[in-house]
């Protein structure tokens, strides 16, 4: 599909932005983008959220998905034909048994990075350097997850396997870069108080597992910190779910009124029961680096939003308003609840997680508001301190 947007340099303070190249109507898809690299989160995979190792498509049927999230193997979903999962197409790597949703994904992974990262028979060997790296990461970065060391491992593996290594190094270098001080803040955010010691441990394990002389800079203390900050700043959360796909398909069914009411009530109750059992962790989750999406600046009144309607890593950017040719396309880095809060609270989250103060029309209009949070906000303050480091996990 044609892309209705292009990245342009705005200023050294703001960096790049994304601008409409034609008039875009509300509800229109601005573009669909495939990530340069992506990876499922490690705890998410450990807890049996089964996703394609390449594109993150959910691998369980909607019914299996609901049964696991409910902890109830007897649950039966109506309209099973509305589930889009095709188990007959699933394939495994013959050496290490990771699962893919299709032969195409298996091949794409093998061609891009999997030859380097395939654990073969060492898949369950805790002393294998890659397993040591993953274990160390899990012990530093508990759910809710916002990033994965394996995203960086796939970047290295991609360059290692590439015939044209310079092309890939250049592709990764176009993502937003930060100064040394800013990088430290981002790494601090990802790793917490002990970040210097932890970062050094990760760097040593990363080097043991993946060192390559073409990329020697990425393995130095400064280069590794930059790589870490690049992933922390540009990583976009990806969420997929066969259950939500099934729900969307059920919503579109043309049913007699009584059946429609019954089905809606069943789905509402199902989600309530799942929330009691599994909390907010409904999706297969990971993150990826997207060239165009990473150029989108934040606004507290965004005119576009990202989503993953194809149940895989393909990101859809959709217009929330009519956007005129030449107008900047902005998304929100805050979730709906955070967007409703005072300017002071919104900017506290943005400064802590993205290192900038927002000057969107909404923030400018509220510039004279007192710099104190209201009482209700004070009570909720604690919750946002871990506000997603990446763009909000997108609802699918």
Automatic annotation (TrEMBL):
<dbReference type="GO" id="GO:0140943">
    <property type="term" value="F:histone H4K20 trimethyltransferase activity"/>
</dbReference>
<dbReference type="GO" id="GO:0008270">
    <property type="term" value="F:zinc ion binding"/>
</dbReference>
<dbReference type="GO" id="GO:0045595">
    <property type="term" value="P:regulation of cell differentiation"/>
</dbReference>
<dbReference type="GO" id="GO:0045814">
    <property type="term" value="P:negative regulation of gene expression, epigenetic"/>
</dbReference>
<dbReference type="InterPro" id="IPR001214">
    <property type="entry name" value="SET_dom"/>
</dbReference>
<dbReference type="GO" id="GO:0140955">
    <property type="term" value="F:histone H3K36 trimethyltransferase activity"/>
</dbReference>
<dbReference type="Pfam" id="PF00856">
    <property type="entry name" value="SET"/>
</dbReference>
<dbReference type="InterPro" id="IPR044422">
    <property type="entry name" value="SMYD5_SET"/>
</dbReference>
<keyword id="KW-0949">S-adenosyl-L-methionine</keyword>
<protein>
    <recommendedName>
        <fullName>Protein-lysine N-trimethyltransferase SMYD5</fullName>
        <ecNumber>2.1.1.359</ecNumber>
        <ecNumber>2.1.1.372</ecNumber>
    </recommendedName>
</protein>
<keyword id="KW-0479">Metal-binding</keyword>
<dbReference type="GO" id="GO:0032259">
    <property type="term" value="P:methylation"/>
</dbReference>
<keyword id="KW-0863">Zinc-finger</keyword>
<keyword id="KW-0489">Methyltransferase</keyword>
<dbReference type="GO" id="GO:0005737">
    <property type="term" value="C:cytoplasm"/>
</dbReference>
<keyword id="KW-0963">Cytoplasm</keyword>
<keyword id="KW-0862">Zinc</keyword>
<dbReference type="InterPro" id="IPR046341">
    <property type="entry name" value="SET_dom_sf"/>
</dbReference>
<feature type="region of interest" description="Disordered">
    <location>
        <begin position="370"/>
        <end position="396"/>
    </location>
</feature>
<feature type="domain" description="SET">
    <location>
        <begin position="5"/>
        <end position="334"/>
    </location>
</feature>
<keyword id="KW-0808">Transferase</keyword>
